[in-house]
Amino acid sequence: MTLPSHADVASRDVRLRLEAGRAAVEVAPGVGGRLSALEVDGWDLLRRHGWTDREWGAFVMAPWVGRLRLGRVAWAGRTWQMPPDEGPHAIHGTLLNTAFTVAEMSDTRIRLEAGLGPAWPFAGRVVHTVELTPRHLRLRLELHADSEPMPGILGWHPWFHRRASRLDAPEQQTGEAVVAIHPAYRVELDAHGLPTGAMGPPPESPRDDVLVDLAGPPVVRWPGGPTLSLHAPGAQAWIAYTAHPDGVCVEPVTGLPDGLNGGLLGEPPVAHPRRPLTAAFEVAWA
Q1: Disulfide-capable partner of 225 in 89, 127, 174, 250 (CB 3.0 to 4.6 Å)?
Q2: pTM here?
């Protein structure tokens, strides 16, 4: 297969489609290398649009996840300032709107790459691999350091429809999505959604929570429609968000919000030259 050029895929409107059996995925290289659609057995499962780019698809979070307090990164005796794009804080890393290049593509697999942007003080890149089978969606992230070590936390932020619709009859919808997730603890957050340094008991039903020590894989189930099982063996936490009227999010992350500055889980993971940080996320259906 001939690879599209960077100019061909940099537009926000480009969608590259993978198909396997009765499943399909669309990828938007020009909008953060995110998944822009997930279709399973005729059901449309991912939000394709949002008021902002934080509210649709399944986007990559790197080199940090969630909020970064006051946009500051303090590591190895040095401090840097990231753009404060969420009030006084920075949110979801540097790749939300970055145009990725396509390094490899087939009918069922695509590998995307992007630099970390001018605001990030370390030279490096992210590789995002998307692979589809008839029963699984498999995602992999790699954070590569070019010349010196750097801290990094990785994750995905999928926006599932609150009610899934049939692709051939959009008026036919499921019941509201049910998120089944069973943690041992909830990370206590302050009014800005940042960890306080304490943990508490898990919520009866997650609304906007950072959850740790899960008893098993999270499940998203649509009554009258499909059920997804979510697997991320390297995740240190999951963020569950169900407060949006049109979507629910279940996000695997390799560290906590503001985790680049240490905290409950200790010092952040470090990517070294020729030794990247990695994360994996698998979505499975019956």
Answers
A1: 174
A2: 0.96
| CB 248, CB 121: distance < 8 Å | no
Cα–Cα distance for residue pair 99/186, rounded to 1 Å: 34
pLDDT, tens digit, for every residue of 151-182? 999 999 999 999 999 999 999 999 999 999 99
Is the distance from CB of 88 to CB of 70 less than 8 angstroms?
Answer: yes
CA 16 to chain centre: 18
How far are the Cα atoms of 23, 61, 150, 176, 219 from residue 248, in angstroms, in the given order?
A: 21, 17, 32, 10, 12
| Side chain identity at residue 46, one-letter code | L
Nearest to 237 by CA among 160, 126, 169, 154: 154
Kindly list the domain boundaries of the chain, sorted by start residue: 6-174+260-285
> Under a CB-based contact definition with an 8 Å cutoff, are residues 251 and 157 in contact?
yes
* pLDDT value at residue 6: 74
- Which residues, listed in sequence order, are joined to residue 238 by a DSSP beta bridge? 211, 252
Domain 6-174+260-285 fold is Beta-galactosidase; Chain A, domain 5 (2.70.98)
**197 phi-psi bin (left φ>0, alpha ψ -120 to 50, beta other):** left
Cβ pair 111, 127 in contact under 8 A? yes
CA separation for the pair 58, 71 (Å, rounded) = 23
- How far lies 47's CA from each of 27, 39, 88, 129, 280, in Å? 13, 11, 28, 20, 21
